[in-house]
Amino acid sequence: MAGQGLTRFYGSVFRRRIDSSVLIRDGSGAVLVVRDGEGPWALPGGVVKAGEDPRSAAARKASAVLGDRVTSGRMLVFDCSVAPAPADGALAFVYDGGSVAAATREFRAAGGSVQARFLSVADCVILLEPPEVARLAAGLSALELQDVAELVDGQPVTAAISHRAEAPAMMPRLPEVSHLLG
Q: Is the CB of residue 45 less than 8 Å from the CB of residue 19?
């Protein structure tokens, strides 16, 4: 009985949803967004299943829309949500899905239940939810800079990195190896 209580406790403390999506563009730079039924518009992707890695999950979800033409390239964005939320926070990954030749601007997939559109970035900003807009902006920037963007609650963590210099040293300087430690 005590084991079940601990399992429930640790499950509630360490529970995080993991989302994974793909940033796919067409030749003109428009971004693919999808919506399942009447849900919100988002980048193609979804929740990572148990036993699945985020990159494979992103490719699986995007392939449901575009078929086997989609591969998940390098990671562009990592976003950790820590703000109070009903889902106890989430980890979100965005991968580079590359560019595809799109003959149409709007179509349906997955038996007609999924709507998909290629939209300009300006239209995406209007249509997508704020966390998705933050990840899209970070992903586009990461593509341009050949970098990976790290976000916390949709905000870049560059300010947090500058505090590292103020942190105390974990071990004392040793005179004979100080030049090696920097």
A: yes
Dig out the tokens for 124 from the structure. Answer: 């995406």
- In this model, does residue 163 exceed pLDDT 50? no
pLDDT at 2: 55
pTM over 0.85: no
Check: CB of residue 116 under 8 Å from CB of residue 32.
Answer: yes
Q: Which residues pair with residue 116 across a beta bridge?
A: 34, 107
Q: How far is CA 140 from CA 10, 114, 157, in A?
A: 37, 24, 16
3-state secondary structure at position 24: strand
CA–CA distance, 158 with 150 (Å, rounded to integer): 8
- What is the DSSP annotation of 25-67? EETTS-EEEEEETTS--BSSEEEPPTT--HHHHHHHHHHHHHG
Distance CA 164, CA 157 (A): 12
The three-state secondary structure class of 72 is: coil
Angle at 117 between CA 114 and CA 122, to 5 degrees: 135
Question: Is the Cβ–Cβ distance between 139 and 32 less than 8 Å?
Answer: no
